[in-house]
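Dock PBG; give full complex structure.
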Amino acid sequence: MSALAFGQFPSYRPRRLRRTAALRRLVAETRLHAEQLVLPLFVRPGRKLRREVKAMPDVYQLSPDQLLMEATAAHQAGVPAVLLFGIPTQKDTRASGAYARRGIVQETVRLLKREIPSLLVITDVCLCEYMAHGHCGIVRQGPGGAQILNDPSLALLARTAVSHAEAGADIVAPSDMMDGRVQAIRAKLDAEGFADTPILSYAAKFASAFYGPFREAAESAPKFGDRRSYQMDNANAEEALREVALDLQEGADMVMVKPALPCLDLIYRVKTQFGYPTAAYSVSAEYAMVKAAAAKGWIDEKAVTLEALQAIRRAGADIIITYAAKQVAQWLRGQG
Ligand code: PBG
């Protein structure tokens, strides 16, 4: 039945249910809970390091000891999960830091699982932070320019995911956008005794200018070229649905749409069409824009942030990854 088949003015007056805050809350169709939030964190080797990211106020590159404090505070505020990105001391052309047994992410996962066992630790599985050239796969220089090789990159990604699982990661999240990586990761996890480790795939990930501030935070900007040969073209929605279908067939347990606000249509379609747990990544520039405008006094940071996150929920996201997770959890509890 279409919505219009119900009440009609003057018997139906939508404003009746908007008269008080209590009424509005009672009939609210969408709720934002701290339990749905994931806080991304950047870790680099060292001690007592807190380097603020220029375009992301209140976001830092942290040494493990500081990251533990940050994760503890977020968890106490009600945030159930963190998403880890590593900044290694050395980069090379095989991304060896990505799958090193004692790599920065692996060591931080061990620390977090030992100190805060109830915190869910999600690891970003990618090669760009560990590659000297900053691309998400193995690069071959040819006469026609550089090529990002798909199939040879899969083994490195799978190895990275297993090393994270070995360290105790609760969920692995491949963000590289190589074809077939979910299958490769699932097969290797299963073969190595990690059949119970879930995969959250960055399934519909667009080549987006909204990742700009992140690349400074993760020190992962490509040294040449761009990511358009592997990340999705912003023009395409049907293709995003095929990407999601493919990742689910390959064994993804949860799927992600990224960025979030520019992709509300896809969050809605992915959730309604597939019905799987759906995450949305509210990326670095979504955060930076709000912070910048708020710093100028042009917008109300709290109101805009909550409205944007609620819109992402309304579109269908079950899980929201946001740099504002701790702050939002505090707002939702009426603190801060
Ligand atoms: C790694 C990765 C990126 C982001 C998450 N994982 C950067 C990229 O693809 O260039 C972006 C996150 C953000 O902007 O907040 N591949």
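Observed: The longest strand covers residues 37-43.
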